User: What shape does this take?
Amino acid sequence: MKVEQISVFLENKSGRLAEVAEILARSGINIRALSLADTADFGILRLIVKETEKAKQVLKEGGFTVGKTEVIAVEVSDRPGGLAGILNVLNGGGINVEYMYAFVQKSGNNAIIIFRIDGLEKAIDVLQKAGIRILKGEEVYSL
Amino acid sequence: MIWNKEMECMGRKNMQEIQSQRLKKIVSYVYRNCPLYKAKFDSSGVKPSDVKGIKDVQKLPFTVKDDMRDSYPFGLFSSPVGEVKEIHVSSGTTGNPTVVGYTKKDLKLWSEVMARSLCCAGAEPGDRIQIAYGYGLFTGGLGFHYGALEMGLTIIPASSGQTKRQLKLMTDFKPRILGCTPSYALYMADEAREIGLDPRESSWEIGIFGAEPWSDSMRKEIEATWNMLATDVYGLSEIIGPGVAQECRHKDGLHIWSDVFYPEVVNPETGRAAGEGEAGELVITTLTKSGIPLIRYRTRDNVSITHEKCRCGRTSPRISKIRGRTDDMIVVRGINVFPSQIEHVLLAIEGTQPHYQLIVDRKAGEMDELEILVEVEEKVFSDEVRKLQVLEEKIRKEIASVLSISAKVKLVEPRTIERSEGKAKRVIDRRKL
Assistant: This one.
């Protein structure tokens, strides 16, 4: 049910994001999903890739600070109110979302939302009880 | 093991007798052979015959770093240049570099004091030592080398840098002793983990770290990381290089070899003697050197001194760990800031390894600004922006409370901060003062 996500510390200097992309490209690692959070001084890039360990290793060798966390990927129907429904379920279960990002699948009518939550087990439980589909790691990696 | 029991464990009265004899001799030697010293003595109205005992050292004029720079290259030599067997040069950030020359006798002295220092740290003849200080013009590598040779260690002269090779040498040859800068020791630990080595399993049992100021909290970090005893070695090229003073296993001050390097602690403002245990600037007179003997050399290192006998049995006076160098010290908005204070704060905040740099700037018509760059290590990194901002804020608040100064804290990527000879550049002063 859980998906591995790597995060990379980036200084706000030109070319750093390109450097990450370049390193991954050279190692033949395809990015499944990504989001970038930034402040005035620094940014945090979050990535979902198929080869998590390899990506982590090559980025570290490239001199980056890299972390690994677990997130969940939830399927939501691609229509107005789709996201609101899920957030209501989480809110109702007393679950706090640290951050989230979404992407739309190439095929099909559904969007996928990645949630970073403290207390993943509980969130999975709450979502499943509400009949919301949570994607398995392999499903996300092979999107 | 104590290398030179006679000199290291001598009673104070006998020691003063030896120091007195040696001082008289060296003062008349420099007066006769070094025009710069003759001029210095003459202009302060002291004659060599005024020096009757070690206490009279206080009558003599100080020697400062600028004397060395201004007399570049040979002006401070007391021996004929032809008798000098080895020359070391330290890079000068402003003006001329500092040059030091060793006669054959000086090299013998260097071997002796480094042998004492290595033994003091806990080395035993037959041990292997990995010397990861730079070899070359820098005194670190060769100083350790001569001492290790003198006391009968097996030397792995790795020099500085090439971290993967250092780790391989350690793994393959299993040296018990490591000599390098303290920041390089921590740097190597990161690298070790990356290639899948557990630093706690290393063969190094004793580290002899120096060439840059470091704090007790950094010591704890190194000891925990490498599972070794981390001792402090003190030295400066002007005096001899490494081997001026060294901690024993009790880590309760650095034993200074006062039969050859006579220490005083003075108030840096007034030049007057500080009391026992009182902080001040370390001033050293080299009692037996022949190439470039220095009289009352102001080291700019802030220490205190004690003459109490150490638990290890040595009676040599002990200087405290360097509390900062006055040339490292920066005055920001009127407040003295030592990089070691910042380091302390960073270490106290859980997990933050001390890779940091202070940048001071002053824009036209504005106040000084202090910015602290801190490298984000994996241990403190989070994928959540909020947590990193909390970290920044925590560092900022701690610094404000310790230094009474507000600073901007900026998290930067690992290895952003320049390291040379494994020595991190701690302060960048961009003010045009």
Notes: Chain B has two domains: 1-325, 330-429. The domain at 1-325 of chain B is CATH 3.40.50.12780 (Rossmann fold). The mean pLDDT of chain B is 91.
